[in-house]
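Hey,

The postdoc asked me to send both predictions to you directly instead of through the lab channel. I've kept everything plain text so nothing gets mangled by the mail client. Protein one:
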Amino acid sequence: MTITGSRLVAERSGLRLVIVPHAQPGCGVNILNPKSTQLIQGVEIEPMTQYPDERGLFAELFRFGEPGIGRDFDPEKGSRIQISFTISYPEVIKAIHYHFEQTDLWAPLSGMFQVFLCDLRESSPTAGNLNTVFVGAQRPWKLRIPPGVGHGYRIIGPEPGMLIYATDRTYNPQDEGRIPFDDPGINYDWVTRPK
């Protein structure tokens, strides 16, 4: 199925990734609930349960191979899990990335992230949809980002952001693609405006 007006980004093994044009700049749907019915198909959000006490704080990030967003990250079933972290300074934009095979699990630990998500999968029922999710220290949610969903973020506020993320395979540069953060077809609005 070809979406009228769409622009082919890449194609591999029958998975066509396209940009469905957005005439007006915008941020798509601001996701305010982890169980929102407006989430892009396959994207999942899991609140991070934290256990603070007088000594500090403890939280689990991912349980691989068990129910939850890490359910199929299982080395016994062939996953080659890689865990990485990045620190980004305020106002830095890291976007737009996509993968054909890799699934990402994100756990923003410090700072605040304006997460961009765009369904590039031409065959998806949510093809072309944009989501924005604000996560980090003030909203400790974890994200599962499936293959074919463009993603990235901007650090908002005065603090650097630290992101720990797991992938269900080791890094493969042939699996990763990039689109400029300011692609005119996606037309994502990264600007903070007074409200």
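Protein two:
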Amino acid sequence: MFTGIIEGLGTISAIHPSGQGSRISINSDFALSGTRIGDSIAVNGACLTVVILEGRRFTVDVSPETLKRSVLGRVKLGERVNLERALRLSDRLDGHLVSGHVDGIGSLRERKTLANAIVLTFSVAQSLSRYMIEKGSVAVDGTSLTINRCDSASFEVAIIPHTAGLTTIGHKKVGQAVNIETDMIGKYVERFVLNRGPANRDPEKPGSGIDTALLAKSGFI
């Protein structure tokens, strides 16, 4: 589990195909003190397991599913990436709960400056936008951001100078692809509602009677 608060950047130093997957080595800009083999590190928001650790250089195995679902299938040698080590239970949760399981890929559609902020608009598929709400949370390349506006095909965020300087997101160009992880709460709520309707309930067991009709009638949807 992660917070979406990026610790620092790293540089892709090696990429080796491994069957349908790949093995990627990354040089971290910051010391990895306390990190051990088997620990999780989010690379551009994708949770990966450290299999080799040599000082500030670590290596991860990337599965075919992760290569297909995220931008890690497109990374190149020398590319800069966002890094965050796993959340400790004693840490402050300054961003939002990020699982490191990328839902899909979006692309930067528009970039503009507004006062001290960089306003970015990303295009996404409806399968991702359905879980987005205004002032809700989203992770873009592992960075926890607040959604200013959204519709069925896009969403907008504002990047402060600190975030722009610490992460790769401030350097993204129009057309570039990014990893998207939507807020897990929306996905769980949808799953709960769709699976708790009368048609899905065991008639032999008592149920709560919660379904989309009840929620709509009560003004929740």
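Summary for protein two, as requested: The CA atoms of residues 96 and 133 lie 14 Å apart.

Thanks,
C.
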